[in-house]
Amino acid sequence: MSLVPFVSVDDMMRLVLGIGVETVLTELGGYIEEDFRRWESFDKTPRVAAHSDEGVIELMPTSDGKAYGFKYVNGHPKNFQGGRQTVTAFGVLADVDTGYPVLLTEMTILTALRTAATSAVVAKYLAPKGGRTMAMIGNGAQSEFQCLAFKTICGIDTVRLYDIDPQATAKAARNLAGKGLTVIPCASAQEAVQGAEIITTCTADKQYATILTDNMVGAGVHINAIGGDCPGKTELHKDILLRSDVFVEYPPQTRIEGEIQQMPEDFPVTEIWRVMTGQAPGRTDDRQITLFDSVGFATEDFSALRYVHDKIRGTNLYQNLDLLADPDDPRDLFGMLDRRSASLKVA
Question: Where is 211: in which H helix or E strand?
Answer without folding.
Answer: strand 208-212
